[in-house]
Amino acid sequence: MSPSRKLWLATAGVCLFVAVLVGAVGALLVLGGAGVDAEGGGLTREASVVASAMLVLAACALAWSALRNAHALYLRAPLRMAEEVDALVGNSGARIGDYGADELRALAQAVNRLADERQSLEGDVAARIAEARASLEEERSRLAALMADLEQSVVVCNLDGRVLLYNQRARQELSADAEGGGAELLGLGRSIYTVFDRALIAHALERLQQARGERGGMAGATGSAQFVTATRAGRLLRAHMSPVLGGAGGKADGAATATGAAEAEAEATAAAPITGFVLILDDITAANERDARRDALIQSLTEGGRGPLGNIRAAAETLADFGDMAPAQRERFLGVVRDEARALSQHFEKAAAAFSNDLRERWLMEEMLGAEFVAVAMRRIAEHCSLAVKSEHVDESIWLRIDGFGLLQALTFLAARLEDEYGEREVREVRLSLTRGGGLAQLDLAWTGTSMNNETAMTWQMDAMRIGGATSSLSVADVVQRCNGEIWFQRERVSHRAYFRILLPAADAPRETAPPIQPILPARGGDRPEFYDFDLFGWSSGSHALDDRPLGELAYTVFDTETTGLSPSEGDEIIQIGATRIVNRRLLRHECMDQLVDPRRLLSRESIRVHGITPDLLAGQPTIETVLPAFHAFCADTVLVAHNAAFDMRFLQLKEAALGLRFDQPVLDTLLLSAVLHPNQESHRLEAIAERLGVSVVGRHTALGDAMVTGEVFLKMLPLLAAMGIHTLRQAREASEKTYHARLRY
User: Fold this and answer.
1) What is the distance between the alpha carbons of residues 343 and 98, in angstroms, rounded to a whole number?
2) Alpha-carbon torsion 720, 723, 726, 727, what sign?
3) Pairing of the two strands 464-467 and 470-475
């Protein structure tokens, strides 16, 4: 039937209905107005009014039923279709369903035909893009192979310490320090400071900035920094840090000579800002232990063999000098030689047997320009003390072989103790000097004014260092000894000057320096390899407040839990946590956490039927006291995402007080976001949302499987939210809070 005929029929039906209704009501009123005849027939006025009212109510009910059907067919159905069209925009594989009205069915078929044509065009475009990217993929594959085959660990970070790249070896070595619970320390977008001390990295970065900035002509003298650090597991790592330079802008003119172009390129490189850094890590634990054992053996042989060798030599010289010695006396001297030789032999055997057990710690040093160290030390002291800091007599040619970070801490600690003990009235400034004395470098921390006794100075050298709120396990004497140096306190009574003097071994100046690493350009598109994403170079966590950050710039931890039941406040416990991460709009399937948990209580049959986890699978698994801190570290600095997040968050929040944790990250719920995007849909279950958005459901009712599906659903939602004008985290949270489902509590 044509739409115009439907319109005429509907109009005729409404007119007929109104005419019949008016006629019936009028007839009843006329009959009621005539009154009752003599024989008692007809209707009374009251009966006519009641009959008219019932007729009107019946007519209203009939009209409401007709309007309700029309509303479902021609108002609510188009709204549902609009939501399905929105979903189709983000998923070209989705199609519009069947509708009862012929007009809507025809519209759905037209939309589906457009979707078919669009999908065909997208396939053609994808094929062209795949062909154009063939060479790029080959280069990326070579990079992945190179990174995988490297024996060294490689990590690339931006200036905020966010990880942009790492190879498989780095993941194995650095994540091996995670303290159980199934989580890893290293991942894209995660902070390198979960692995290394922030102050240590900041010190190395400061050295790079110092070399490039303040020393002008010597900017290329130090293209890298080195330091040695210990991991949580006690392994020693030697780190080589190189800067990653941003684009300097400007190109050499085509008519310029080769020399001019090279100079222009060098100037551009020198002017380029540092946008990140590369860490190349070597595990030197075994090598350091071998060196220490070798040193221990040499020391043992040297000290233990000196006495016996002296006795043997004395006895041999006596026998040689007195040839006419009596036989009995000669025999005694020969006995001394035999006994000492036997003792020396036993000492050698004992030392060899103890080769692997008697070790002496050895710390590897870094080489740096002495003037650069003094400049950094002055700034560090000024940051922690209100004393004025100056330099004097600094030899620009001295290179030092030291533990730079530890020695900086020692100088800062001594300056802070001076300020705390004597104040600015007695000690107004300190001076640093660096001079050469023979083959040693002489570093002085001097001041004029009050003096202290030798006992106080010795106490300062032996106390554990405390700077600000941080306490080190090392003392000043420990650091100086680690640097193979000596320290003492000295006073000059005439000039009222006192100083701590540190003698350090001087190093030879390097013959050639490593050139700065060339700028790394952002990689675009593609999913392989999974371990790098250079688009994060422009990410600065302090650029603006988290709530005002665009959703596409945030890092997310998508998680799910399986539990013993549905009542967390009544004692139900978590038995599995699964989580994965989203960085730069990419689901990182290889950076995940999947851990079973021993709930230390019985599982109900109903819960086992849902998730399939039986008690024998939980036997021997870590408890929530171990797993939850690991999960807390895994999701640090991210936004939490879950489906029906209120349920999962309730389980986490009930454990916060007992474990000393706090899950205070922002939370987004895909259930609430689905209600925002598709308010006219009847179901917001995870399977229904996934079907609408074209996401395959795999591993349902396993924690990690549900987390993966939730992550894919969330990524599909981002462009739909943007189309609604929801671009920031604040807007997404505010929109979620307005939905009905946000009122549910657990």
Assistant:
1) 99
2) positive
3) antiparallel
Q: What token pair was written down for 110?
A: 């037209």
Mean pLDDT of 242-261: 58
Please say whether the structural domain 366-507 has been given the CATH code 3.30.565.10: yes
pLDDT at residue 218, as a whole number: 43
Among candidate residues 347, 384, 701, 741, the one labeled active-site is: 701
Burial class (CB in 10 A: 0-12, 13-18, 19+), 163: buried
Nearest CA among 710, 721, 733 for reference residue 89: 721
C-alpha 312/C-alpha 333 separation (Å) is: 9
Report yes or no: 460 and 498 within 8 Å, Cβ to Cβ: no
Q: Rounded to 5 degrees, what are φ and ψ at 166?
A: -160, 155
In the annotation, is 347 catalytic? Answer: no
Write out pLDDT tens, residues 337-354: 888 888 877 777 766 665
What is the distance, to the nearest Å, from the Cα of residue 167 to the centroid of all Cα atoms in its chain? 16
* Tokens at 700, concatenated: 């349902």
Q: Of the CATH numbers 3.90.800.10, 3.30.420.10, 3.40.640.10, 3.40.50.720, which one belongs to the domain with range 544-743?
A: 3.30.420.10
Helix (H, G, I), strand (E, B) or coil at 238: strand
3-state secondary structure of 292: helix
> Is the model's pTM score more than 0.85?
no
Per-residue three-class SS string for 89-146: HHCCCCCCCCCCCHHHHHHHHHHHHHHHHHHHHHHHHHHHHHHHCHHHHHHHHHHHHH
Exposed (0-12), middle (13-18) or buried (19+): which is 470, by Cβ within 10 Å?
A: exposed
Asked if residue 485 lies in contact with residue 399, where contact means CB atoms within 8 angstroms, the answer is: no
Q: Which pair of structure tokens corresponds to residue 182?
A: 């199934």
Q: Looking at residue 72, what DSSP letter applies?
A: I
Q: CA geometry: angle at 428 spanning 388 and 494, to 5°?
A: 120
Radius of gyration of the chain (CA): 40
| Other residues' Cβ atoms within 10 Å of the Cβ of residue 535 | 16
Taking the C-alpha atoms of residue 511 and residue 434, their distance in angstroms, rounded to an integer, is 22
SS (HEC) of 349-402: HHHHHCCCCCCCCCCCCEEEEHHHHHHHHHHHHHHHCCCEEEEEEECCCCEEEE
Whether pLDDT at 414 is above 80: yes
Contact call for residues 726 and 736 (beta carbons, < 8 A): no
Point out which residues pair with 588 in neighbouring strands.
581
- Name the residue among 598, 525, 521 with its Cα closest to residue 564: 598
pLDDT in tens, 341-391: 888 777 777 666 655 444 444 566 778 889 999 999 999 999 888 889 999
Cβ within 8 Å of residue 689, ≥6 positions away? 670, 671, 674, 695, 713
Domain ranges of the chain: 3-115, 287-353, 366-507, 544-743
Q: List the one residue out of 142, 188, 125, 141 whose CA is nearest residue 161.
A: 188
Supply the pLDDT for residue 536. 45
Q: Which is it for strands 440-448 and 429-437: parallel, antiparallel or unpaired?
A: antiparallel
Tell me, what amino acid is at 170? A
**CA 619 – CA 57 distance, rounded (Å):** 68
Residue of 82, 79, 77 lying closest to 103 (CA atoms) = 77
Domains 366-507 and 544-743 share a fold: no
